[in-house]
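REQUEST ID: PR-0412
SUBMITTED BY: lab tech R.K.
PRIORITY: routine
TASK: structure prediction, single protein chain
INPUT:
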Amino acid sequence: MNNPAPATSPSAARTLADPDTPFAVVDVHKMRRNIERLAARADRLEVALRPHVKTAKSLDVAALLRHGTPCPVTVSTLAEAEAFADGGYTDITYAVGIDPHKLPRVLKLLRRGVTLRILLDSTEQAEFVAQASRQAGLPIPAQIEIDCDGHRGGLKPDAPTLIEIGRSLHDAGCLDGVLTHAGESYFAYTGEEQRLAATNERDTAVAAAERLRAAGLPVATVSVGSTPTAHAAEDLTGVTELRAGNYVFFDLVMAGIGVCRIEDIALSVVVTVIGHRPEHGWIITDGGWMAMSRDRGTAVQAQDQGYGLVTDLDGTLIPDLVMTAASQEHGTLTTRDGAHLPDLPVGTRLRILPNHACATAAQHHGYHVIDSTRTTNTAPAIQDIWQRVNGW
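STATUS: complete
OUTPUT:
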């Protein structure tokens, strides 16, 4: 379930100049600021915040969400649910459609006293969940996924099967509520577009809930959220909880649509220069797509950031330098518009800011933690190493 911890310990690796590259770095100062920003917004909107831990997949990161006290969380894998349950989290939503083979693990967590909500969007799923609940003598809390923008799964709020699914779940004591995710908000390029996406997300979820209630079915939970809409929502009347995950780290995709600034990005990957191809205008590093992922989410934005922007070891952007290509273990850095390459000798350490924090973090066993407010005359000091939960 958990991958092995990194070989380097904080005592052996004192600064970012010490561990073998590539490795992931989290700036705890920036991360705390990102966490506080959304928590304050949720408070203003008077809605519960249920962070999605799929981005960091780390109990250490989650401990900062509510000052060390376990809070309601959303997960994307049962491995996360199990690890967080082991860490004292008892209110968990598994926000990926359920299949029958996973129900024994779900029931095992429920028997431990964990409230684990599952997600579904079909009569077939509702039937096998209801049957499993009856056989186990234990209701499995289930939410009906609602499609608010055609991004992925879910039912439209006026779908003929919505009431049928709700009744099937209710009769087995399983109906918890509805959940939607505005995935297309990642392509909302202006603040107004993001506000409209947030309004649509809310209205769609509330409409589905009201339709179920009109049919005499109780709906306790109305859950909405994505990182763009969570930061754009102005009125969440009728919603009981707000979900978001990427916001703890942020990334270049979020910066590209204006949800955050580049200087808010808390995750980076340290790489080392291993070669030069001046005839091509290339600097070669030891950080390829195995370190950064293949995600090219900024390619559709006004400013394509390649595989990531480049900073020095202190986190200062190197103007016009971009990671424009990647093979498995090699990254290629070039300048925009053929500008002069900076002088970066073999052995120089750099940091790459990711396109998609979730995908880049998934390439690593854990995070080397720094605090950018603590300045020294050497490379940034490593405060700790935090492990991740990997696998499914």
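NOTES: The chain is about 30% helix and 25% strand.
REVIEWED BY: pending
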